[in-house]
Amino acid sequence: MTLLSRHRRYLGAMVAGLFGFLLLSNLIPDPLASMQWRVKVAPEWEFSRKLDLWFRNIGIFIQDNFGFRATLPVLRRELRAELNSPDSKPFYAGRDGQLFWGREQTPAQSAGALVRTANVERFVDMLGEMQRILAPLGTKIVVALPPNAQSVELEALPLWNDALTYPTTEYDLALAGLKARGVTTVDLRPVLKASPAPRYLLTDTHWNARSSILAFNAVMVAAGHPGWQVDPAQVVGQLEPAPRGDLLRAMRMPPEVKEEDFRLNLPAKASKPRFDPVLRSLNEHIAFRSVVRDYAPEGLKVLIMGDSFTAMSWPRLFANAPVKEVAWMHASARVTGNCDFSFDDVKRYAPDLIIYARTERFFPCYGDDWPKGLPRLWRSAVPRNVAP
Questions:
Q1: Helix (H, G, I), strand (E, B), or coil: what is residue 49?
Q2: Residue 36 and residue 27: Cα distance in Å, rounded?
Q3: Burial (CB count <10 Å: 0-12, 13-18, 19+), residue 93
Q4: Which of 97, 127, 181, 198 would disulfide-bridge 257, Cβ 3.0–4.6 Å?
Q5: pTM for the full predicted model
Q6: What's the angle, vertex CA 199, arms to CA 151 and CA 248, rounded to 5?
Q7: Which has the closest alpha carbon to 328: 339, 313, 343?
Q8: Is position 74 within any domain?
Q9: Which domain holds residue 324?
Q10: Residue 241 lies in a domain
């Protein structure tokens, strides 16, 4: 009589085979891997120096090129596509190969399947309170939320998205609430939908350069300064090859589409960005430090409160505006945070115009997030029904 029944022996053999395959996979080159080293060696180096560098980086080389680490995500994607199954974590492909971000509940937010009413109301309260305090000081606020790609590139979304039909979205709710409070807003979704494709980068979460210009012009009109617009025919150049986007890099997959973006021919009227001691509160990421660009000795002061959608381009687009300086600050103290910027900095800077442009997926105010120095509208720290 054996110690193990027959089915257990089969199961044990299968488990042993699986572990053996996993161990063996580290010796089999991945067919989709590039078989390249992350470190570069110069041709003139001695062989001993090259060998030392290769030896010290052999672990990373095996990680990149063995174990089917590039093949498995591709197989998973193809299986889901064959089953017509939505894959929303953390990214998924549309009908034309465009990649869409799936985290932060972005697909459901754009479709209207997710409407966090209390969080949106908290956002509306925040902007309304800011306007109540700043309007007597001569500051105008314009709210323009850069939309998710899913809110604009509708024809590029996967087929399963066609079944998502809901009457309203958080974006709609926010614009209606701000309008009721007298805050100037501009809906960037129809602005971008009216433009020809492509509107967003194919392998990245961000809009392309042309969409950025069109959105900026719409904001200038909403702010009451149509003369501050820039001419797209002069500023927006031809489509050119661009670096692989953040989604494709995160997926560690071979590119199925070539990334392209429009060349921007921006006028060099503004100075180089400088730090301003008034804008003391800094974002946690070094790339999102508060900066100021000087334009003229006299004129209006503009403050853009945004994120990566506006950081590099919008502060440089005021060549046609009679402005003294344009400042940019992140609308959050954290890269993925919400509504926790420093209102004390805003008051100290004393801008004539504030452009609030936090991207759609990050605009609702969660939990206890609230600007530093802005009076709270509730007795308790966190109102009921606010947690996401």
A1: helix
A2: 16
A3: buried
A4: 97
A5: 0.76
A6: 85
A7: 313
A8: no
A9: 99-362
A10: yes
